[in-house]
Amino acid sequence: MKLHADPRNASLNTVTGYSAAGIEINAVAFPHSVVVSPEGPVASWGVQDIAALDADTVSKLADGQPELVVLGTGRRQRFPHPRVAAQLAGQRIGLEVMDTAAACRTYNILMAEGRRVVGAFIIEPELSS
């Protein structure tokens, strides 16, 4: 799915495409999970499944003190262990959980509104047949 960037925010990190094989930020393809904020580099994120979230991976989401983390959990919406939300809430950071396609769209909307948002997008490994 291709997403169209808002030309007024051309300097910001925008999700420009998503498929089961990866995510595209500013027309650059990433075949793996990433963490992105409106400004700064796109960071590789070693999480391939929601069960892999732990204190260290969640703490990386809090870097820069966003007001909200949009977590894309792969092909389907899956909720992380409640300690994930609690860890972020303890730092006064909200958490929205959805499948990665919906998370991409939501991140773009919030970013375009000028919100301090972080997108954490899980790209699951391809299923072998």
UniProtKB/TrEMBL annotation:
CDD domains from the xrefs? Xcc1710_like (cd05560)
An example Pfam family from this entry, by short name, is DUF498
Q: Which SUPFAM superfamilies match?
A: MTH938-like
InterPro entries in UniProt: MTH938-like_sf, NDUFAF3/AAMDC
Give the Gene3D superfamilies listed for this entry: MTH938-like
What's the protein name? Answer: Mth938-like domain-containing protein
Lineage, broadest ranks: Bacteria, Pseudomonadati, Pseudomonadota, Betaproteobacteria, Burkholderiales
